[in-house]
Amino acid sequence: MNALTAIGEILVLLGTFFYILSSLGLIRMPDVYNRMQTATKSATLGSLGVIIGVGIWALGTDFGSIPWLTKTIVIAVFLLLTNPISAHALIRAAYKSGIPLWEGSVVDRYREHLEAKEKEAGSPENPDETPIKEGGVE
Amino acid sequence: MIGINVYLALIAIATLLSMYRVFRGPTTVDRLVAVDIMTTITTGLMVLFALYYGRMIFLDVALVYAILAFGGVIAFARYMEGGL
């Protein structure tokens, strides 16, 4: 009874620590890409700690039950699945809308990938048509 | 041990720190990233409210809030990309 409460409190404390760490990274980092790197991962880990910690903590109280823990695990798995998807969509939108990288950045793999794909497509005057035609043939 | 009020206060501090980036961010995507982090933090806050009041219905609220925030962020990202 009491051990479950202690484990839950430790998990919640860890989660809030990672929440504060993620918002500090959001302030500290110089670039939108670096901010996304530091913010998404630690916020996901922090919410995993808080949500599962609350589920275990509630088992130690008088109103907690097994459905409580099941619901918290469902919320945690949903956040774990959807947080990287939204981060990926946001950062791709940032790159497509032309926000430049920080001047200290040295590697830009996505631009190399785009240039290689454009070179592979062949026809320089109409680069948007060719992949659609290839997809249609296959 | 410590008490749930301390955790609520720590989460409030984290939300205020990320609100700094919402007001200050140079580009639109900076503000969107900060709002995304704030929705994640708010989901954890709803789950803590469920423990604070001892009612399970707040967990359903947290799940629906997570789903709606995910859809909103995806829609804003598509709009920034120019596909909407």
TrEMBL record, chain B:
The keyword Nucleus does not apply. Its main location: membrane. InterPro entries: MrpF/PhaF-like. The chain crosses the membrane at residues 6-23, 32-51, 57-77. GO terms for molecular function: sodium:proton antiporter activity. The keyword Transmembrane helix applies. It comes from the Archaea. Keywords: Cell membrane, Membrane, Transmembrane, Transmembrane helix, Transport. It is found in: Cell membrane. One of its GO terms (cellular component) is plasma membrane. It holds the Pfam family MrpF_PhaF. It is a multi-pass membrane protein. This is Cation:proton antiporter. It comes from Thermococcus thioreducens.
